[in-house]
């Protein structure tokens, strides 16, 4: 018994098996095979290793964005001069990655709770009190109907903030058309946890003195983190005067694609601009619901009565989106890439077999040309896939 | 020397090697083997190609969301009539993808800086001045203790915004219970950079006239971008009157799964609704810290004294989340999918070998049935894995 | 004809082919080969299965975060006492996942529209009216120039909100330095759609009574969802008094890595803290544009004139980021992992061949030691890759 175990053990450790080989001598097939092997080899080296960097582990970034607008606008509406600065035109105020820059507005001052008639804009017509359901609310309406029909305007009377906002006419040109010259400063920090790397878009070449003067330009200043609003709008395919009037949304993409095998200095952001909501350059068709607007109220008390100023704000909404990706050499993905390359496509270095082994193991056949028609080529391809998988055996 | 190189070269290019084959004739094993091969083949075609679309490259979307609520509520609190419109009940105002719709509130008007006693809610009891550490702040308290204990209420005196908010009783029914009928309009734009495709949730069939009337319904109007708040709440598994009273959070998922090999018109969003924070349909258990509320202050000056109205706002928080994914045919993943399919599982088309080759290369064994017990079947499975990997050689 | 089809059919189903094997008896090579096989086997079991859990399908979470600060600060600025509570110092108010806690500010009260001179901070000097372009705006300026140079301050006269904010001196120590003791409560809900699992960071052990008292501590209370602001700041590598003065940004990462094959109770969050924008622990260098601040205005009407209080707010911005990932056993990835393991590395269980088969199929060679120099070892490695791929054939 003991000797059986011992023999099995020694068999297991001291013998190994390998398929027997046939050496086929045939020019046409062999050349096709070598070409296929070459293609596979260049695929693995060129694509898997060079292009897709299969030898790296990849981490995606945790990112944080802080924004700050600068610039003032001066308006003169029927003799009333007014200056607008950043605290007046940015919503929300705290420097978020998604914010709105007001470029136009419809202001309804002195609204207070009460009864008044609906806006005669054609959507809320009535001919008699029967058309105005008491206590009901119309989707296109601004308040709760009292049940009366105002005969002057042919609209229902409503309980609402009165007077009702009249937004039938959007100011043209936009009130804050000088918003074009506002500047946007973006501070973006990314963290690659896996590699313990923290990086900011204020890279080495962006120092304080440069930032005091620079303005982003794709060719000359691609790293300057200060952007002119008009440039952003135009780069994303919009027309500024159009977007300033009715509003619009723009995506600013900060793209980090870092190869951490190189010096960290080469890890730099790229800025791209997209028009969102279908009026950008990629989408010329007419679409419903263009523009970007929202309503906003400032409340105050006057003579013991609560009042509000309602603003319908049109503006440029900017969404800053960060794509961060870093790769670094790692032994596991390298082995896996080589392994699956060798495994799937079998790129084995061909080792010249010694003469003796060749004699011992191989059997050579000479196929004559009559057996190598098109059908044979297909056979070779099929065969070759096999060889690609299993490689050569030269022992 | 020259002739040696020449011969090596011609050997390399004009010869190739392939394992020698054995042809085994055995019904039982062969049938098992064919069945396994069939299973593998259907796995690759059915799963890898049909289901997982292994022949496509995939891109995830950059997305932007804009929201707009509509609707008014009318309240009558002890004779004081008031109308609430969108500028009054949405936080923040600018149409973000995450926002809160106020459905209930506790308002504390006329707060001003000063000294007053803590709320006698059982959390901040004191029996003597020694219990009220001067200059300290209790986690459950509302201000800085002055060191005195108010004997009437048995609570510490504090320096705070006075009077202190009394939130022991949440209004029931919720003050703005008609919020159920508000509508939410969602505009969502997605960009697949890799394929240069921009798409909006206002797809072809959603035109202006449709949008004026439609309301989302899973069966009848699955593409209408206008949602009734009550429907959203119910679809996510909450009870509206409950959530309106104490607040709650709901996730609206916009799911895009686009096959760009088809016409772009088939790339449509799907809307799904999730209850968050443990009161939704997926989670019946009682959990701590239910509800959703936050505090908000409106400041004003009265008789030269700064005052504020503190609002404890209960509401429905809606988080809109976009999952965008598009696939398109590409040659590289197709080859990789075929390659790894062939490589790993070796689905080779079996080519009938010519009689001559069979004679030349193969050796046929006939195994009798005595050698094909259960142990043999396992051997076959093991063997089959080998065959699956290395396929057949028919030259 | 019929019989030919029948025979092909029976050939296809009742025969199968397998490569012929050579059994090589050579200790040195065989041992190397077995060691390589062992390494590969442990790679697959240890790495692919144990470490990377290759047998699971993975889903990433949809998450929602709600935050709530607590705490009050008491300030005494030149005799004017004031208490600050959560409605006064958090921006935005609605409990977002990204918010700012004010720790310091520069307040400019009573600003109104008018003409005044620029701040004499060295950036906006002028010597004569010619330096002040009428109707223009300087990037470093606060308003639109009127064309006059104020000779007292040597700065241009501007049309602006007057008086201009003077932010040359940042209050030191920070006004709200007691912000260190504020607490942050985080409620985080995650949903794994694929597995129909909803989970909150208020896990089983975090009940109401625990939450009333607990405070996050990495060692003793790693699951308590209540964090002291000072602790967060210190854990992220900042110095609190520094960050409170000029502001800063901190990322709070909630990391969920759940194995749903275990009981759901083991699915717990981990909290991590990162300093963002280059002043954290990972980045000691001096960088431009330190700090975090934004401007905010409160508007009011006094004697029929619109005025505002401008606040330059310095604070700690907290971005809460959720990484959610859950794995669960699934048959498809298990088969794929085994398949590619077997396929690429060919870990086949070695089945002892019966003596008869060995006689039938194999041919044994005894290589003498003279043929096993270093060159042979390489040959073995190469060979071994083949064996790893194609395994053993023992039929």
UniProtKB/TrEMBL annotation, chains A, B, C:
One of its GO terms (cellular component) is postsynapse. It is a multi-pass membrane protein. Keywords: ATP-binding, Cell membrane, Disulfide bond, Glycoprotein, Ion channel, Ion transport, Ligand-gated ion channel, Membrane, Nucleotide-binding, Receptor, Transmembrane, Transmembrane helix, Transport. It comes from the Eukaryota. It catalyses: Ca(2+)(in) = Ca(2+)(out). InterPro entries: P2X_extracellular_dom_sf, P2X_purnocptor, P2X_receptor, P2X_RECEPTOR_CS. Disulfide bonds join 116-162, 126-149, 132-156, 214-224, 258-267. Its main location: membrane. Glycans are attached at residue 181. ATP binds at residues 68-70, 183, 293-295, 312. The chain crosses the membrane at residues 29-50. It is found in: Cell membrane; Membrane. GO terms for molecular function: ATP binding; extracellularly ATP-gated monoatomic cation channel activity; purinergic nucleotide receptor activity. One of its GO terms (biological process) is response to ATP. Gene3D superfamilies: atp-gated p2x4 ion channel (1.10.287.940), atp-gated p2x4 ion channel domain (2.60.490.10). Receptor for ATP that acts as a ligand-gated ion channel. Belongs to the P2X receptor family. This is P2X purinoceptor. It comes from Anabarilius grahami (Kanglang fish). The lineage of its organism: Eukaryota, Metazoa, Chordata, Craniata, Vertebrata.
